[in-house]
């Protein structure tokens, strides 16, 4: 039998390592050597732990899928919340990485003995009918544009499957930001937030507006912060996965402390997601109305027509306490490199608009556990080279200092709270409060009434 060697070039290996969070690979199966046969694939690849399947077609595309779970020829679906599809190279072999995270974890992998690598029950199937061919069909398990993945060329010139192994060098020996991960620290930050009093007496609560693309995690961030103070995972704000914004109203959410419902000195404001196409999602012109406090709670957004002074519900003379004091730009850390150009331009326009008002901003880089697939412990987030790299890329693309970017893990599939996740969320809220305080410093100090 011919010598079994990887087809991947060094630059392709480096791109794949980046997508996987700097892991190393061991070639298990090469179809051109072992045969385009599903039974042989399972004989070589079952019970091997995490694997990545890499396919090549005649149009120069390199694409495939990753799963953390072992193939076992179970005859059913395998759940994997960290599975994803990917493209390394596009038309004519040009490097153009694309990562497509699983949408429904319970349907991530279809593990059947007579089928080759099958992601999402047909979303991507390699060795289709035991031949050098692939089959793809966008479904509820993975949502993507099929042509983007392989250029509509389903003939395979090669197909390889690698065992994926943890690479110790994917983590720094020391974190590049210092954090204390203890229950005492969690309690300390919670008390700081509870006892916080804004600089101005006329502003009893800080108003924080979340902005970002669809599915970035804006509503989930409020739910997660609210969960920390409630003591259990809550789902007050509507959140989910869809091609269009799940949030269609402007909502102001006071965060309540514990079962007694005492309001905290922060209000998190949620909006429609920002979308690439004009006339869809939150329009930039609407942001000025929100900042100035003209938009009422539960206002139904209309991308075709912004709120006007003669519109029903328009707040004509809002005071400073009802305006926005800080911005949280919420960005999916897995997608920052593949943001469509028009969407990236919109985010930059929003930054410029917010800067005109002098309001401070913080970028929340969400889904950090998906950025780095080896990140099993949130405490290691600042040790992860993959997370650090995404933060630098975000700083460059959005045009914001690295000091104003923080990694965030929202509560999405979890049923119980975690101290480490809480600390990451609480420290983000504390940072937003500090930035809001800097904004309020621009206004004249008011003496308390008892001093007048």
Summarize the structure.
Helices cover 26% and strands 22% of the residues. A 7-stranded mixed sheet has the order 15-13-14-12-16-17-18, with helices on both faces. Strands 1-11-2-3-5-6 form a 6-stranded antiparallel sheet, with helices on both faces.
Descriptive notes:
The strands form 4 sheets. This protein has a 7-stranded mixed β-sheet, sandwiched between helices. Strands 1-11-2-3-5-6 form a 6-stranded antiparallel β-sheet, sandwiched between helices. A 3-stranded antiparallel β-sheet has the order 8-9-10, with no helix packed on it. It has 11 helices and 18 strands. The protein is of the alpha+beta class and about 450 residues long. It starts with 9 loop residues before the first helix and ends in a 12-residue tail after the last helix. α8 (about 340-355) links the parallel β16 (about 325-330) and β17. The model has no long low-confidence stretch (mean pLDDT about 85).
Shape: elongated
Over all CA atoms, what is the radius of gyration? Answer: 24 Å
SSE ordering: HEHHEEEEEEEEEHEHEHEEHEEHEHHEH
Question: First CA to last CA: what distance?
Answer: 92 Å
Major sheet strand order: 15-13-14-12-16-17-18
- The poorly predicted ranges are none
Largest sheet: 7 strands, mixed
Helical residue percent? 25-40%
Mean pLDDT over the full residue set? 87
- Percent of residues in β-strands: 15-25%
How many individual β-strands?
18
Return the structural class.
Answer: alpha+beta
Total helical segments: 11
